[in-house]
Design goal:
The protein is mainly α. It has a single domain, classed as 3-Layer(aba) Sandwich (Rossmann fold). It has five helices and three strands. Helix 2 crosses helix 4 and helix 3 packs across helix 4. The termini are far apart.
Length: 115
């Protein structure tokens, strides 16, 4: 575990332009470590993110020009990198097992008649 935390601590940005990913746990881990992240709409976690606020969400993971622009942006604007990292940490702290379980229960109660 220490090696992973050391890697996140040494990084300035986490980039994962996924073409397919059911959730994207490394994106969540990086956010919890205060890193600004770039992922794609094909990562399941993207449905929980706010593009330009707590992350950058790439619409097309094959679009290398846009990806390069998104990678440069936090380096060219250190205040953006810092703010986005702080927001990412705050957002990720809300992703708990308890909250997830409560959301599933609520969904099931709405979906299953008479429950």
């Amino acid at each position: 575990m220490g090696d992973i935390l050391d890697a996140y601590a040494a990084a300035d940005l986490y980039v994962s332009p996924s073409q397919e990913d059911s959730f994207g746990m490394p994106v969540a881990e990086a956010m919890a470590c205060g890193l600004p992240v770039i992922t794609s709409i094909f990562a399941g976690i993207s449905s929980l993110l706010h593009d330009g606020v707590d992350s950058f969400v790439l619409r097309d993971p094959h679009d290398s020009k846009t990806l390069a622009k998104l990678i440069r942006m936090p380096y060219e604007h250190s205040e953006l990198r810092s703010r986005m990292g702080q927001v990412a940490t705050n957002v990720s702290q809300g992703w708990t097992w308890e909250r997830n379980a409560a959301s599933v229960i609520q969904l099931l109660q709405k979906t299953v008649p008479g429950k």
